[in-house]
Design a protein that fits this description.
This protein is of the alpha+beta class. The chain is 23% helix and 22% strand. The strands form two sheets. Strands 1, 2, 3, 4, 5, 6, 9, 10, 11 and 12 form a ten-stranded mixed sheet that branches.
Length: 241
């Protein structure tokens, strides 16, 4: 695993990923994480180098237009991304947004665990493995700045409006694979990880149904991870006096 920008990353920082139950069970059953194409995300600014303010037809950052938009759109298709949330504690907002309104499952890991768990990804068995890149996303006010970074580095910059995500990002670029004639999927890919290395803790969501809770515990036990299962702190009993 290579760190984007060659920057310093806290290898023991807690990272969280929130799943709907069926996605989590698929992870345990297959040992694979889904890496989405960069153009599958809802964020309309994914990969943007600037944001033009509405209602302003002239922007000095774009006094001279440059080519490359079409080429970058192809790179968005060829770059596959997996996202994690950097936090020392579980997040109610993340439960709501990514775990089916509190009905899912979360796992906690660290960058060092991800590095140890990653297995070489080959889009075809006869090809060399693809580089796994990782790093903290940098948040920039794209209304004021125009990024001058490499094509790949763009995927570790986001508009400041998304800074609440506190994202740690994994990415695999399949640009060179396509140049060698490999058919690259339009959408995402699944990448294998050593799940025992990857998962530090499993957290059951606050509103997970009893049947789903049972399925999660059974899958964790079958994977040798039963002792790592916890329940969300939001299932605690509040006291007022």
């Amino acid at each position: 695993m290579r760190i984007a920008f060659d920057e310093s990353v806290d290898l023991e920082e807690p990272l969280w990923r929130y799943f709907k139950t069926e996605r989590f069970l698929d992870l345990l059953n297959t040992g694979e994480l889904y890496f989405a194409s960069a153009r599958q995300f809802q964020d309309p600014f994914e990969g943007a180098v600037a944001v033009l303010a509405p209602g302003f037809p002239v922007d000095p950052r774009y006094a001279y237009l440059e080519s490359g938009e079409k080429a970058f759109e192809e790179l968005r298709r060829l770059t596959k991304i997996n996202c994690w949330h950097r936090a020392s504690y579980e997040s109610d907002a993340m439960w709501q947004l990514y775990a089916g309104a509190w009905k899912g499952v979360a796992i906690r890991t660290t960058p060092s665990r991800i590095a140890a768990a990653a297995t070489p990804f080959r889009i075809k068995p006869e090809y060399e493995h693809e580089e796994l890149w990782a790093g903290n996303v940098r948040y920039v006010d794209l209304l004021k700045e125009r990024l001058r970074v490499s094509m790949l580095d763009r995927f570790w910059y986001k508009h400041m409006a998304f800074s609440w995500e506190r994202e740690f990002r994994l990415a695999i670029s399949l640009r060179s694979a396509e140049e060698f004639g490999v058919a690259v999927p339009v959408d995402g890919i699944k990448v294998a990880f050593d799940i025992a290395q990857l998962v530090e803790r499993i957290f059951i969501g606050p509103s997970l149904a009893e049947a789903d809770t049972k399925a999660v515990r059974q899958a964790a036990e079958a994977s040798g991870l039963a002792e790592r299962v916890r329940v969300s702190s939001m299932l605690g009993t509040p006291r007022y006096t």
